[in-house]
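Box 3.1 A note on notation
Throughout this textbook, protein chains are presented in two layers. The first layer is the amino acid sequence; the second is a token string describing backbone geometry. Keep the layers aligned when reading.
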Amino acid sequence: MTARPAVVLLSGGLDSATVLAIAAGQGYRVHALSFRYGQRHVHELEAAARVAQRLGVHRHVVVDFDLRTFGGSALTGELPVPKDRSAGEMSHGIPATYVPARNTIFLSFALAWAETLQCDDIFIGVNALDYSGYPDCRPEFIAAFEEVANLATRAGVEPGTDDSRIRVHTPLIMLTKAEIITRGRALGVDHALTTSCYDPILRPVGDGPRWLACGHCDSCLLRLKGFAEAGLTDPIAYAGR
């Protein structure tokens, strides 16, 4: 019997790699979806490719579009990436690294691919605990998008089509970063293949140029905190650490 397909959003970070491993472990035939959207940290696509290959996805697609057209984010424009913020600072307000409507756009692409695959299951690694205040990582947003998905697809409105609902799976949404790291380790995720940094530094090393995590952006700080709380050492390289 052929495994059921699932579309998994894959950024190359800790969370999306763990979600991919969860979907694969549940027996889905994984179709991984990444984006080149004008982000400054395009090294994440190299990480996504490594993770997809290691975890043996059925297909990995990278979609190109350019959100630099609109700007409005430190990841797609000239705004500086916030550095060395305290936990208290990260827990209040929406940071400059928020990309307007990014998860809405990403999920819309995932929904389009899911329709062509006759697929009911979409996985995304959003998290509502250890995150930097992004409004499109909240359970309320995911529930609302799932409703839209079931109103806007052929299966939802055309008589005689499959009446099963499209589900947006968020298995990490109420886990801490430490719990996500521990879960990933248990599932065989190689964290050395992943990246999280919003402002990586390209440095020469013995075998050629290499991207190093800055160690100071919100994403790096949350990642390092998660590994420390999990009692593990982060295997990726950081500049100046």
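The CA atoms of residues 127 and 173 lie 4 Å apart. The longest helix spans residues 102-116.
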